[in-house]
Amino acid sequence: MSRAAETVSPLELADYQKAVRLVLRHPLVTPGYPDKAALATVRRWAGQLRTDLMEVLGYRLVTTADTARLQRAQDGLDATRPALTRAGRPFDRRRYAYLVLTLAALGRHGAQVALGELADAVAADAVRIDGLGLDTARKPDRDAFVDAVTWLTERGALTLADGSATAWAGDPERAEALYDIDREILLAVHHPTRVLQHLTSVTALLDSAGALGMSAGRAAQRRDQARRARRLVLENPVAYYADADAELLGQLRAPALAEDLERLTGLTVERRAEGVALVDTSGRLSDIRFPGGGTVAQAALLLAARISAAVQRTGRHAPELLPAPTAAERLAARARRIDAALPSRALITELAEPDAEPVHEESGDVGREPGETRYPFVTDSWLRGRLKEITSEYGAGFAADLRGDPDRLLDQALDLLNAMSLIARVDGGALALPLLARYRGVTARVKTRATTQPPSRTTLFADDTAEDPTP
Questions:
Q1: What is the Cα–Cα distance from 312 to 291, expressed in whole angstroms?
Q2: For the residues 38-47, what does the mean pLDDT come to?
Q3: What are the E-state strand segments in 214-320?
Q4: Environment class of residue 228 by beta-carbon count within 10 Å: exposed (0-12), middle (13-18) or buried (19+)?
Q5: CA dist 323 → 154, 240, 307, 373 (Å)
Q6: Contact 455, 261 (CB under 8 A)
Q7: What are the tens digits of pLDDT across the range 63-74?
Q8: How confident is the model at residue 54 (pLDDT cuts 50, 70, 90)?
Q9: Where do the H-state alpha helices sit in 190-244?
Q10: What value does the mean pLDDT take over residues 139-143?
Q11: Which of 197, 198, 196, 193 is nearest to 209 (CA)?
């Protein structure tokens, strides 16, 4: 059994746990990212963090003079932590491609680089990739490239010495930007645990035990299962018992799991009949806040309340019960989509690891256990109808662009509920998962803010009299 932070005195435990949450929330810490005090906080506890993060979670903390890099052991493909643009939107595939090519191009430059010169280097590589390219004469391409450069700048890999990237994106003929390159941070940004050219599938990146050099044997396997269970609770809104295999289920139910995670993070582990969750009511660790502000989060909360109410119906109006896709099925589906874009040129097949036995998505009852868990199913058409009602009643508080595009709003709201493990998106609709019941009593009201000139500005608020929706 792990003894996380057992050598930390009670008087210093809160400071230690703050460092834990900091490095878990920001796997790369530099002199200026996420703030100027972060690196000193992590470095103070570096030795204890290095020991406890490996023992409890199987994570390796690598520190240098100017960086602290957490190497996570990945058990699944997670789409909920995207890189963000300057406008706060998730990177698309073009921006990710530009980011990778920018990292490669920076390795061929000296101590400084001009933005236009860097763009030309990236464009020379991008043109060799089918469907990509980088045309600096096109504003959308320049904006996407600057988003990738800005992401590196925020983390300190690049430091603006002169000029403006925004001005260059607006008119590269009239503006330029000059950057200093920090090679130590660049190395920390891209630190793969595999030789990527040797991979035949994205799932090969998920061999966490091999990646971090853990030993084999039955005792080691039990320790790794315990780490995997803790990671599952830490990295997800909830760990459902129905989604765990027999070995993992035993670890999730073990009392030591809650003790270790609470001691390590300072948060509270909550157990229910359906699963276990690490509760972060203050937002000190979570990368997604729900309920939260903004049109998508507000619509998602109201939609969650309607779905939760619908699944309580009985008799002829009760929703159909269907099995949710297993974790293996979800992983296989995501891997197939990613592997479809995997380039085969220059792949060294002799050194590549063999692919894992394929897992096929099944429909209905094929290949499932007789006592499987089933969840209430709501159709896409039903969801569209409920969102139309929500928009009609509360739309005055929604952003105009999303209010005018209900299909996009519904898709984003369902994606958020799915990311929070409140629903499982399936063909033709969604399955209501147990955590959704927490939002059963949510109501809302539109509060109008007084102003001297029409039109009035309205904002949506959760009703103070409603059931507390904090997850």
A1: 22
A2: 96
A3: 239-240, 268-271, 275-279
A4: buried
A5: 43, 14, 17, 6
A6: no
A7: 999 999 999 988
A8: very high
A9: 208-211, 218-235
A10: 97
A11: 193
Within 10 angstroms of residue 150's Cβ, the number of other Cβ atoms is 18
Q: What are phi and psi of 415, to 5 degrees?
A: -60, -40
Alpha-carbon span 201 to 342, nearest angstrom: 8
Q: Name the pTM for this structure.
A: 0.82
Q: Which residues fall within 8 angstroms of residue 324, CB to CB, at 6 or more apart?
A: 242, 243, 373, 375, 424, 426, 431, 433
Q: Per residue in 442-466, pLDDT tens?
A: 776 666 544 444 433 333 333 333 3
* Beta strand spans in 320-443 (E): 321-323, 374-379, 423-426, 429-432
Measured between alpha carbons, how far is 235 from 237 in angstroms, rounded to an integer? Answer: 7
The mean pLDDT value of the chain amounts to 84
Residues 162-211 have pLDDT tens digits of: 999 999 999 999 999 999 999 999 999 987 777 777 778 888 888 655 44
268: left (phi over 0), alpha (psi -120 to 50) or beta: beta
